[in-house]
Amino acid sequence: MKLTREEIEQVAELAHIALGEDEIIELHNQFNDFIQFVETINDINTDDVEPTYYLLPLKNVWRPDQHHQPLAPDEVFHNTHEHDGGFFKVPRIL
Amino acid sequence: MVEYEAVIGLEVHVELRTKTKAFCSCPNEFGSEPNSNVCPICLAMPGTLPVLNKSLLEYGIRTGLALNCEIAHFCKFDRKNYFYPDLPKAYQLSQSDFPLCLHGYLDVETDLETRRIRINRVHMEEDAGKLVHGEGNADYSLVDLNRGGVPLLEIVTEPDIRTPEEARLYLENLKAIIQYLGVSDCKMEEGSLRCDANISLRPVGTDILNTKVEIKNMNSFRAVQRALEGEIERQHGLYETGESIIQQTRGWDDVTGTTSLMRTKEEAADYRYFPDPDLVPIHLTSELVESIRKGLPELPAARKERFMDDFGLPAYDAGVLTSSRELADYFEKCVSDYHDPKKVSNWVMVEFLRLLNTHNMEVRDAKLTPSHLVEMLQLMDQGTISGKIAKTVFEEMFATGKKAGIVVEEKGLLQISDESKLAEMVEAVLSAHPEVVEDYRKGKGKALGFLVGQVMKQTRGKANPQMVNKLLLERI
Ligand SMILES: [Zn+2]
Asked: Of A54, B182, B450, B463, which has the most beta carbons under 10 Å away?
């Protein structure tokens, strides 16, 4: 499998990353090298192997529906200056 | 001329009334101070670990069972990736290829037939925060993350709905079921039930699926019905003039009663789902599912049947009374203390619902309790008040919460059953209207009603009507 240049551009757009022409070419090559590397795995016969959705031998982990104290207001905004009247402030959308 | 039919599918999001959020222990509350129900997990701080709320899973299974779904033996959570400021992780925890519930259905009764609407899936996910846009031309938006991480169920139908009315009926039924289950309050105005619709048209008799249009922002069941009606007309017009339908998302505007093209979030089609590595997969045993099934309450359809069988109510009455669990409970409390279910049904369906609607109130807000109604009905049976006066008493009880006996006393509404007193009034009315008496004697039956009315008028409705009737007939 090989990615097309358009796919690289689309992934960049979805990730909100602006790429220059040089970067598109470089990443295009790197992506395809990497995919080729990973494709080796296709040579392994997995007919008798269950699909893997999770790597650790864990299932059914849940917690009881009980309150914990949420953060105090000064802790909520501890990592930002961008807040106003109890809200986070972000650049206007739409 | 080609006749068209609509092909409609609905996607409903229901906010669950768990105590805490889906993956952290913050309170799940509506209307708190902004950002007062947040913690490192729902703020998406690096290094935090979400853990599934057991109630979310249980509520999901309950809902799936009530909608006749198969409950998956295996399911998992996936990341749905997109950038939007109401989503601090830049992904929503949702379920993609292995949802909790599959292949259910919900039957709805139209005037003509029972229609089975198949449910494609029910899956668990989390809600996003709330964006408040800055005033005027402000260059910022404000974010409240209290709703971020609140548990949701997404319930998706197959495109089995054929008319806007069926869509509304489906939603009403779904809401009733979810309320009976006690998993959500389904308040569309508070956003705890939200509905998007997909709709296309096709020539009747074919089974093709044409280009569909998505409609969003509908804020009531009525709005869903109106928006779909409008969209059918719009698409029909396009087909008639040979134009093609373009796949798009349209937003409903309740004020103008129309939809318009919506700008959508980026190239949303590509959410790049992948399994969430923080949340552990879920393997459900049949024992667990069956134990939850045993705990299901009686659902609206079953309760309606029982109301018809046990109380001898007409299907219409039983349907109205069981449309909400609270109303059905109210009715059952009344009939446990009163012998005539149909009489109770009439008062609850007509007067009680009318007053609730006029005052935009819920059953639980009413000061008029079942014991108020039962006492009033007993006063009617004893002849203490007439049916006409009862209506006044009912309204007064509804407004003040005072008991029927007290209202009757305070307002002087006691029925006049004193025969000699009524006889005097009857005599006076007869002598005042000799021409009407003459009419009656000539065979005009209606004339009697006029004379009864005159007596009722003089007593402001308090005269015992049977007695007035009897006294008039004796003297005429
Ligand atoms: Zn939290």
From this structure: B463
What distances in angstroms separate CA B394 from CA B321, B336, B401, one per listed residue?
A: 19, 20, 10
Q: Are residues B139 and B166 in the same domain?
A: yes
Closest by Cβ to B54, choosing from A54, A55, A63: A63
Residue B212: half-sphere exposure toward Cβ, Cα within 13 Å: 15
pTM: 0.82
Asked if A51 has any chain B CB less than 8 Å from its own CB, the reply is no
The model's pLDDT over B244-297, given as tens digits with 9 standing for 90+, comes to: 888 888 999 888 888 988 865 544 458 889 999 999 999 999 999 999 999 999
Say how far apart CA B60 and CA B121 lie, in whole Å: 11
Question: In this structure, what token pair is assigned to residue B274?
Answer: 């992948």
> SS3 letters for B42-95?
CCCCCCCCCCEEHHHHHHHHHHHHHCCCEECCEECCEEEECCCCCCCCCEEEEC
- Interior CA angle at B372 toward B369 and B373, to 5°? 95
Question: How many A-B residue pairs are in contact by the CB < 8 A criterion?
Answer: 127
Whether B35 and A86 lie within 8 Å, measured CB to CB: yes
Q: State whether B97 and B171 are in the same domain.
A: yes
pLDDT at B266: 47
Number of domains within chain B: 3
Residue in this structure with the two tokens 């709805």, named with its chain if needed: B108
Residue B311 domain boundaries: 299-407
The rounded Å distance from CA A54 to ligand 1 centre is 24
Q: What is the CA radius of gyration of chain B?
A: 29
Q: Which of B186, B194, B173 is nearest to B299 (CA)?
A: B173
